[in-house]
Amino acid sequence: MTERLTIRRPDDWHVHLRDGGMLGAVAGYTARSFARAIVMPNLNPPVTGAEAAGAYRTRIMGALPAGSDFTPLMTLYLTDAADPGEIERGFAAGAFTAAKLYPAHATTNSAHGVTDLRNIFPALETMQRIDMPLLVHGEVTDPDIDVFDREKVFIERVFTKLVRDFPDLRIVFEHITTAEAAEFVASSGPNIAATVTPQHLVINRNAMFAGGLRPHAYCLPVAKREAHRQAIRRAATSGSPKFFLGTDSAPHAVERKESGCGCAGIFNAPFALESYAQVFEEEGALDRFEAFASENGPRFYRLPLNSGTVTLERAPVTVPERLRADGTWVVPFHAGETLRWRLVETG
Ligand code: DOR
Ligand code: ZN
Predict the structure, then answer these.
(1) Ligand 1 centroid to residue 256 C-alpha, Å
(2) Ligand 1 pocket test: which of 18, 219, 252 has the largest number of ligand atoms within 8 Å of its C-beta?
């Protein structure tokens, strides 16, 4: 049995690092495991221009623990008023690596999101021409659509048209949760890829209702039925270069989760890598873990692979029930559980 697992240093292709005190509390968890991360722009107000992205990057760098070796890759938040010129200039200058499409009101701080795809056609044309990746939160927001069907219906109503109208645009279908999404990505061209979170590999929708309402198992897109979790596990561990690591770690203060209207988001950054390793082991796919965690993402983004390594060892690690953050607490994914792999070294 493998006792130590050394892989090329991984990256997190989807993370919410927040701002202010919360940023200071959580950034170190991501930097401990990952060399780079695609940082979501859904701040309040959202990051809609190069200047705001640069200022946010500076705040992230200032929030990292001393000695961190971590590079945040910034993203632009697309609105109905997205300016193609600003996108092109900012991408050329390295101010952002990708742009994020949130359908308006799909999730946390998405009120400024896009109300109709046609409003951003000029931006998408520019992105296709300059080869800038589009990151998609793939859920419709139509209140008539059942919350568990929102990803599937997004594929039918929006994604298929997007791919048809912009055949060369590189698109990441973020945090996929359904068999339909895995199939859509697998059967699309090489310019369509997906990120997969730890929670969508580990829990199904029952986790939200286990003995009572479980706000810490609630995120968006919401976890689906067991058959979907199985499909996501097969896709992530298949060896296909189209699927890669993106945690969607999304911390909220405990009182904002445990509330009459709890926020969506699972804070998985502290043990994300350990959680993924356990899934790959369960699937008999540890030999494919490095590609998923450290190779497929940079290849899709056309960035160099990292040069360092991380080492996990087979040893039990107990996840704390809660962690101190910004004068309050955050509850990590797997709280109170014991995981089988432990991160021991970054080299
Ligand atoms: O659960 C989620 N939380 N999904 C998102 O899309 C946003 C995120 C957040 O920012 O809290
Ligand atoms: Zn997210």
Answers:
(1) 13
(2) 219
Three-class HEC string of 84-120: HHHHHHHHHCCCCCEEEECECCCCCCCCCCECCHHHH
pLDDT digits (tens, 9 = 90+) for 272-302: 999 999 999 999 999 999 999 999 999 999 9
Q: Do residues 47 and 41 lie in contact, with contact meaning Cβ atoms separated by under 8 Å?
A: yes
- Above 80 in pLDDT, residue 1? no
pLDDT digits (tens, 9 = 90+) for 239-258: 999 999 999 999 999 999 99
Tokens of 53: 């992205």
- CA 263 to centroid of ligand 1, rounded, Å: 8
Averaged pLDDT, 9-16: 98
The pTM assigned to this predicted structure is 0.98
80 is catalytic: no
Residue nearest atom 10 in ligand 1 by C-alpha distance: 108
Residue 249 three-state SS? strand
| Average pLDDT of the segment spanning 335-346 | 96
Instruction: Say if ligand 1 is within 6 A of residue 219 CB.
Output: yes
Q: Which of 12, 165, 168, 248 is catalytic?
A: 248
What are the boundaries of each domain within the chain?
A: 11-305
101 C-beta closer than 6 A to ligand 1: no
**CA nearest to 72, candidates 90, 54, 87, 47:** 54
- Our answer on whether the CB atom of 250 is closer than 6 Å to any ligand 1 atom is yes
Q: What is the CATH number of domain 11-305?
A: 3.20.20.140
